[in-house]
Amino acid sequence: EVQLVESGGGLVQPGGSLRLSCAASGFTFNGFWMSWVRQAPGKGLEWVASIRQDGREKYYVDSVKGRFTISRDNARESLSLQMNSLRADDTAVYYCATRSGSDWGQGSLVTVSS
Amino acid sequence: DVVMTQSPLSLPVTLGQPASISCRSSQSLVYSDGNTYLNWFQQRPGQSPRRLIYKVSNRDSGVPDRFTGSGSGTDFTLKISRVEAEDVGVYYCMQHTQWPHTFGQGTKLEIK
């Protein structure tokens, strides 16, 4: 059974940093592009970033470029999202997912507020 | 960026009746490999999204056959042949042909 389990969310002040992690199991992690997708409270889904199987190709939505960094550790079967210079409009549930969306985690809530 | 436009945004349906959601993209979603990377997702209240359809018309494992995806190029449709109570939720289309990947605004299906 595929499992994606996010962790690391919480309350952070504007301008602060947070690192999300996603532990993967039940599938060949190093065979898949992986993504982060977020959902602001009461809003729709927004793709945030994706990373290729070997970690050498990465893409970001414009609103997070230069502030967020996606990375992966295939040996540990984990995906990460380092979030810096956080803003109020980054408040959302962040989902770890395969690039095609075949599998999703349960989400981790990030709240940016003073 | 590819803009995905769904309609309607709200869809009240009587149990047992059909439902249809349209998704239009601002550019063709046909990739250089010939595939069209257009997926449909269901998000039930309080749950993570679940993929229903991939590459326009391929139903995921465990998805009831009352869900059907169709379309080509820039015009796509998700149809539910007979709506059941468990179908309540928000439906999204998503393209992953081009970067950045983009979602439609979502269509909220409710029982009339």
Q: CA-to-CA gap between the ends of chain A?
A: 40 Å
Major sheet description of chain B: 7 strands, mixed
- In the predicted model, the low-confidence regions of chain B spanning at least 5 consecutive residues are none
Count of separate DSSP helical elements of chain B:
0
SS content category of chain A: mainly beta
Low-confidence stretches of chain A: none
The level of helicity of chain B is under 10%
- In percent, how helical is the residue content of chain A? under 10%
Main β sheet profile of chain A? 6 strands, mixed
Shape of chain B: globular
**Helix and strand pattern of chain A:** EEEEEEEEEE
Which value, in Å, is the CA radius of gyration of chain A? 13 Å
Mean model confidence by pLDDT of chain B = 98
Largest interface: A-B, 21 and 22 residues
What percentage of amino acids of chain B are in beta strands?
over 45%
Give the terminus-to-terminus CA distance of chain B. Answer: 36 Å
Protein described:
The complex is a heterodimer of chains A (114) and B (112). Chain A has 114 residues and is an all-beta fold. In chain A, 0% of the residues lie in helices and 49% in strands. Chain A contains no helices and 10 strands. Chain A has strands at 3-7, 10-12, 18-25, 34-39, 45-51, 58-60, 68-73, 78-83, 92-98, 108-112. A 6-stranded mixed beta sheet of chain A has the order 2-10-9-4-5-6, with no helix packed on it. In chain A, strands 1-3-8-7 form a 4-stranded antiparallel beta sheet, with no helix packed on it. The model of chain A has no long low-confidence stretch (mean pLDDT 98). By secondary structure, chain B is mostly beta strands. In chain B, 0% of the residues lie in helices and 48% in strands. In chain B, strands 2, 4, 5, 6, 9, 10 and 11 form a 7-stranded mixed beta sheet that branches. Chain B has a 4-stranded antiparallel beta sheet with strand order 1-3-8-7, with no helix packed on it. The mean pLDDT of chain B is 98.
